[in-house]
Amino acid sequence: MLSKRNFQPLTTINPNALKQIRIVLADIDDTLTTDGRLTAEAYSAMEHLEDAGIAVAPVTGRSAGWCDHIARLWPVAGVVGENGALYYSYDRNANSMRRVYAQDYETRNANKRRLEAVAEKILVSVPRASISADQFTRVFDLAIDICEDV
């Protein structure tokens, strides 16, 4: 298990090694965000990385809807969402979204029906559980909320 003491400041890394970095992958919740909000400092850091030619790609369990927004509006090369099931990248020059999915349409629809059945069981079995507020924008997974918006 990693702890904070396993991490070292970037200033301790050989500058030549830092020059080889081409992409930064980062979780969103409480990694890029602080207390659930994207700070100006974090957004600015992503802009500085982009300006330096280093791509940023958030990786999150958040929904396709969130990922569409992030790919369009944040200074990122793309975003991996729904726990790795999709990748979105927005081409600002062509005003076009590239969407890459881990499963084809038929498989996604079959799995969606299975997840709906699971959701019914969870809602009956787990007190205070509800369907996540962003479920309507999910393509692959089922998000159950027990503490975020409840």
What does this structure look like?
- By secondary structure, the chain is of the alpha+beta class.
- Helices cover 35% and strands 22% of the residues.
- The chain has five helices and nine strands.
- The strands form four sheets. A three-stranded antiparallel beta sheet has the order 5-6-7, covered by helices on one side.
- The two termini are 30 Å apart.
List keywords for this structure.
150 residues; alpha+beta; three-stranded antiparallel β-sheet; two-stranded parallel ribbon; globular
End-to-end gap: 30 Å
Enumerate how many helices there are, as a single number. 5
- β-strand number: 9
Task: Kindly report the spatial arrangement of strands forming the biggest sheet.
Answer: 5-6-7
The residue-averaged pLDDT reads 92
- What's the SSE pattern? HEHEEHEHEEEHEE
Describe the sheet with the most strands: 3 strands, antiparallel
* Low-confidence spans: none
What fraction of the residues are assigned to beta strands by DSSP?
15-25%
Shape call: globular
Furnish the topology, listing elements before pairings.
Layout: H1 15-18, E1 23-27, H2 28-32, E2 33-34, E3 37-38, H3 40-51, E4 55-59, H4 64-73, E5 79-81, E6 86-91, E7 96-101, H5 105-125, E8 130-131, E9 144-145
Parallel strand pairs: 1-4
Antiparallel strand pairs: 2-3, 5-6, 6-7, 8-9
